Automatic annotation (TrEMBL), chain A:
The keyword Metal-binding applies. One of its GO terms (cellular component) is mitochondrial matrix. The gene is Glrx5. This is Glutaredoxin-related protein 5, mitochondrial. Residues 6-71 form the Glutaredoxin domain. [2Fe-2S] cluster binds at residue 19. Signal peptide: none annotated. Pfam families: Glutaredoxin. Belongs to the glutaredoxin family. Monothiol subfamily. Keywords: 2Fe-2S, Iron, Iron-sulfur, Metal-binding, Redox-active center. GO terms for molecular function: 2 iron, 2 sulfur cluster binding; disulfide oxidoreductase activity; metal ion binding. InterPro entries: Glutaredoxin (IPR002109), GRX_PICOT-like (IPR033658), Monothiol_GRX (IPR014434), Monothiol_GRX-rel (IPR004480), Thioredoxin-like_sf (IPR036249). The keyword Iron applies.
From TrEMBL, chain B:
This is BOLA1 protein. SUPFAM superfamilies: BolA-like (SSF82657). Belongs to the BolA/IbaG family. Residues 1-32 are annotated as: Disordered. Residues 1-22 have a biased composition (Low complexity).
Amino acid sequence: VREHPVVVFMKGSPAQPQCGFSNAVVQILRLHGVEDYRAHDVLQDPDLRQGIKNYSNWPTIPQVYLNGEFVGGCDILLQMHQNGDLVEELKKLGIRSALLDAEKDQEKK
Amino acid sequence: LSPLSLSRSPSPMRGPLLAAAGGAMGGPGGPLARAIRHKLTVALQPTHLEVRDDSPRHGGPPGAETHFGVLVVSGRFAGLAPLQRHRLVHEALRDELAGPLHALQIIARTP
């Protein structure tokens, strides 16, 4: 989980999510301009699927890890996106959210 | 805040999260829905609780009871971050999540 600042365990791949909740995670990250992250498809590996649930003590997929730390599933990511926490967390990782640039463009106009 | 207004408050990306979906909200639901409702009531003493079977929206037949969404309003969540609130819900539903329940959407609010 520490291989990259942003790691996602999901069903399917970012190009082809196999479940609505996993897709939601991909879309939210995309909104913030985060396209470079590690995504693990648990459908490809049943051991991984159970292992990651044991590791985080969290029963469902998708799971999002920021800087090696478990952050939550898609509900929590959505909440963080809506209340601005996600922009802050990404900033701590040295990732500038695309939404900040979008806001700047708005202000210029 | 009356329960009715709470269930109608919109959430931008969710759309009608707790609107009746394929009639799944009508009636007490199947055995898993009742178990979920019972366990959450006992564990969290919610002031408001909604349990919805989302299985049809994930390719399952109606009544498949694999994917659920819950809205829980409980004072027990006070002072807890979203992750901790969700963990409380998972604790209450530990057996179900180890079994037939594949996915659980959670909205956890204080009254």
